[in-house]
Write a structure and sequence with these properties.
The chain is of the alpha+beta class. It folds into six domains: about 240 residues, no CATH class; about 60 residues, Orthogonal Bundle (Arc Repressor Mutant, subunit A); about 170 residues, P-loop containing nucleotide triphosphate hydrolases (Rossmann fold, 3-Layer(aba) Sandwich), CATH 3.40.50.300; about 100 residues, Beta Barrel (Elongation Factor Tu (Ef-tu), domain 3); about 110 residues, 3-Layer(aba) Sandwich (Rossmann fold), CATH 3.40.50.10050; about 100 residues, Translation factors (Elongation Factor Tu (Ef-tu), domain 3, Beta Barrel), CATH 2.40.30.10. Strands 10-11-9-12-13-14 form a six-stranded mixed beta sheet, with helices on both faces. A six-stranded antiparallel beta barrel has the order 16-17-23-20-19-24. α18 runs parallel beside α21. The longest helix has about 50 residues. The chain is elongated and about 160 Å long.
Length: about 850
């Protein structure tokens, strides 16, 4: 293998066989210091020699060309000396790069000529048509350009070029593809023939290729070609000459797209008509909300108000008249509404007669505490509820539905009988159809029994008197009937219209008769409701469960309550996530007169609130927000402020002691009853101040509030959570836990009495009249008295009055009869006294002597 076969490619020795492709890298230098590196590959053509001759080495081919007539090969020169081998490689790389550049320029020139030829033909056709139209003749058919012009003698056959080089590499003739493949371009006289580049011997220094021939001055400029030729030489352009145009960057594409979009909208931009809206304006509205309803900018509304002389912010509330001015100025229509329109009014929502269906009756069991209300309900339900109540008394309002032997359903409400649960009994009477007044046959009418009678009369509900405990020997029903006459209740046994039943919850006697009379009364009332509509219900009880969240026990009045319904309950809104019946089973629907426990409220509602199903959550939030605003305004309403009110309030505040409390209960009804009972304990000297009351476990906020105010925390059937217990132990906050309400009220009453301290009881012992005043020592004065009534003793408290006006309060420090000190002087005798810390004594004054006894105060 010769030395030329061992030449490395790209600085690397070949691995045995000689490759047919050699690659090199050239560094190009441009203006402004720019450089670029281009990788050039050169293919070698294999030439077959004659037999007996050495095979010539293929010359590098830059572009395909017609096969020329090969000249006789020259005899191979002697191999060069080893010292010049490095120089020969450099010269070969330079020559190969120069030939590649020449091939590229030839390709560009050929493409340029084709484009110029097509453009000239188009111009010539347009000129001919214009001349024909000007002469008025028929348009001539355009003469088709010859597809192939007669080749020039020089281009008929490529002239072989013999390369003379000292190296053993035969140089091939320079390719001329444009002259052989497309001779019609050379036929055009306006464009000169391409300049041919003849390779120089390798011994000569490398020569830069000459620039392409200049265009004639009359030829039109090809901007695309000029841009392409003047562009930067890249690897893509070097390897793919046909795609000379540089790809556009993403930023350029984006700018072009935006420009096109602007131009498109500029052509369509027409002044759009202002959209006139019907703006609903309530009695008061914020500037931001008004701007939202008008679809205007809030800053524009504030600017307009500034021009009117009103310095407002976007969160400030304006009245309806000001809002009307703004709406009119901005070109909208105003619709005046009242704030009450935001609330739900069901007074006009009356169901059609044909939609009504029979519903079960709702029966409330009312009466005095320990008269057997819950025991009667236990007997009707077949369960035992009393054992679950602390102290054996009902402190929660329970709702249950039973099924009779005949298949009818009856809903029962068990109300507490304790005096603190007045609100619960009143609420139970208002939501029921029939009231069962439970009176113990061995006890008679008691205060809560009379109260239940009054609630029933106020609600206008029919009553059934149940005289219980008939199994006891002291049972006397006739006495009960006679006592009921005092309250204008005449039972059927005494020719009245009120039904009465004698029964025993322990033995079960009279229960069937009671159920029959309930069904008879319900039949007379013709209880009906429309189940095929949105539900309306009343909250019987509400509480906060640790795992389930806010819960509300509701009684459906009409319609059907379904899972997923959006509802408003008082000041709370929510969605029905689940419903539980009185036995704890999940149900999907609840019809009229069915008590259910609803999960999914946003907060704990108040017992007695109405539940209404609405269409959307937005409407539910709107109604709840309006009701919350009204409740806040009602709670914070204040009397007109003037000096008289201010001073009277200060005097009252200084005179009355406030006993602060934080109350937490298990259900809303219990909290309500506790707050009412504590307010009744208040007197003119001390009153209860409830800092916070709520439903659920005692939390950290309750502990912090109690610590800041020094108030104890009262927990009714609830306990603090873990963090609250830690705060209680750390801050030593007083806690009071109760599960029976009367124990709670008794304890708070004694604590409030202790806050006032012991009560001073005055007992008048005697009275005397001052007859004469004597000096006693330097400062003091002694009074000569005549005891008119009772006894005067030494050391007792005394009041000195003059014309029935108290002059001073003092004590008797010395008592003498004549010159002897005595302990007491009885009535009708004379004596001399020395009073403590007073010298304002005159003849004719009255002296009243009394004793003071300190007793524990009671409320």
């Amino acid at each position: 293998m010769s030395d030329s076969d061992k030449k490395p490619t790209l600085g690397r020795r070949p691995l045995g066989l000689k490759t047919s492709v050699e690659a090199g890298e050239v560094k190009q230098t441009f203006s402004h210091g720019r450089t670029n590196k281009v990788v050039v590959e050169v293919k070698r053509r294999k030439l077959m020699g004659r037999p007996g001759e050495a095979a010539p080495v293929a010359a590098p081919v830059a572009a395909p060309e017609p096969t020329p007539v090969a000249p006789p090969p020259a005899p191979p020169p002697p191999p060069p000396p080893p010292a010049a081998s490095r120089e020969s490689r450099q010269e070969m790389q330079t020559r190969l790069l120069r030939e590649a550049e020449e091939a590229r320029l030839n390709s560009l020139e050929a493409a340029n000529r084709r484009e110029q030829e097509e453009r000239l033909r188009a111009i010539e056709d347009d000129r001919r048509r214009a001349e024909t139209k000007a002469r008025g003749d028929q348009p001539e058919e355009p003469v088709a350009a010859p597809t192939q012009a007669a080749p020039a003698p020089a281009a008929a056959a490529p002239e072989p070029e013999v390369a003379v080089a000292p190296e053993p590499v035969a140089q091939a003739a320079a390719p001329a593809p444009a002259a052989a493949a497309e001779p019609e371009v050379e036929a055009a006289p306006a464009i000169p023939a391409p300049r041919r580049f003849t390779p120089v011997p390798s011994a000569a220094p490398a020569k830069r290729p000459e620039p392409a021939a200049k265009k004639p001055s009359g030829a039109p400029r090809d901007r695309k070609t000029e841009d392409r030729r003047g562009g930067k030489l890249t690897v893509t352009r070097a390897l793919n000459d046909d795609e000379g145009a540089r790809a556009r960057s993403l930023a350029a594409l984006k700018r072009a797209r935006e420009k096109e979009k602007r131009a498109h909208f500029a052509g369509q931009s027409q002044p759009r008509d202002k959209q006139v809206r019907d703006v609903v304006v309530p009695d008061a509205i914020t500037v931001q909300e008004l701007a939202n309803r008008m679809a205007e900018k809030a800053a524009d509304l504030v600017k307009a108000l500034f021009k009117m002389g009103m310095m407002v912010t976007i969160n400030q509330t304006i009245d309806q008249d000001t809002a009307e001015l703004l709406v009119t100025e901005f070109g909208h229509n105003i619709e005046r509404v009242s704030d009450s329109d935001a609330d739900i009014d069901t007074t006009y929502d009356v169901d059609e007669e044909e939609t009504l269906k029979v519903r079960p009756p709702v029966v409330a069991i009312m009466g005095h505490v320990d008269h057997g209300k819950t025991s009667l309900l236990d007997a009707l339900r077949g369960t035992d509820v009393v054992r679950g109540e602390a102290g054996g008394i009902t402190q929660h309002i329970g709702a249950y539905q039973i099924k009779t032997k005949g298949g009818e359903h009856i809903t029962f409400l068990d109300t507490p009988g304790h005096e603190a649960f007045t609100e619960m009994r009143m609420r139970g009477a208002n939501v029921t159809d029939i009231v069962i007044l439970v009176v113990a046959g061995d006890d008679g009418l008691m205060p809560q029994t009379i109260e239940a009678i009054n609630h029933t009369k106020a609600a206008g509900v029919p009553m059934i008197v149940a005289i219980t405990k008939s199994d006891k020997p002291e049972f006397n029903p006739q006495k009960i009937r006679e006592r009921l006459l005092e309250h204008e209740i005449l039972v059927e046994a005494m020719s009245g219209d009120v039904q009465d039943v004698e029964l025993s919850a322990k033995t079960g006697a009279g229960l069937d008769e009671l159920i029959d009379k309930i069904l008879l009364q319900a039949e007379l009332l013709e209880l009906r409701a429309n189940p095929d509509r949105a539900a309306d219900a009343t909250v019987i009880e509400a509480k906060l469960d640790k795992g389930k969240g806010p819960l509300a026990t509701v009684l459906v009045n009409r319609g059907t309550l379904k899972v997923g319904d959006i509802l408003v309950v008082g000041t709370q809104s929510g969605r029905v996530r689940a419903m539980l019946d009185d036995k704890g089973r999940q149900i999907k629907e609840a019809g009229p007169s069915l008590p259910v426990e609803v999960l999914g409220l946003g907060g704990v509602p108040m017992a007695g609130d109405s539940l209404t199903v609405v269409e959307t959550e937005a409407r539910a939030r709107e109604v709840a927000a309006y009701r919350q605003e009204m409740a806040t305004a009602k709670r914070t309403v204040q009397a007109p402020v003037n000096l008289e009110n201010m001073f009277s309030a200060l005097a009252t505040k200084n005179a009355i002691i406030e006993y602060a409390l934080v109350v937490r209960g298990d259900v809303q009804g219990s909290v309500e009853a506790i707050v009412n009972a504590l307010n009744k304990i208040s007197t003119d000297e001390i009153k209860v101040r409830i800092l916070s009351s709520g439903v659920g476990a005692i939390t950290e906020s309750d502990v912090n509030l109690a610590q800041a105010s020094g108030a104890p925390i009262v927990g009714f059937n609830v306990r603090p959570n873990a963090k609250a217990r830690e705060l209680i132990e750390r801050n030593k906050v007083r806690m009071k836990y109760f599960d029976v309400i009367y124990q709670l009220t008794d304890d708070i009453r004694s604590e409030m009495a202790g806050e006032l301290g012991p009560e001073a009881i005055e007992t008048v012992v005697g009275r005397a009249e001052v007859k004469e005043v004597f000096p006693a020592g330097k400062k003091d004065k002694a009074a000569g008295l005549l005891v008119v009534e009772g006894v005067i003793r030494k050391g007792l408290h005394a009041r000195l009055t003059r014309n029935d006006v108290i002059v001073s309060r003092t004590t008797i420090s010395s008592l003498r009869r004549f010159k002897d000190d005595v302990a007491e002087v009885r009535g009708g005798l004379e004596c001399g006294v020395l009073l403590t810390d007073t010298n304002d004594i005159k003849a004719g004054d009255q002296l009243e002597v009394f004793e003071v006894e300190m007793r524990d105060r009671t409320l």
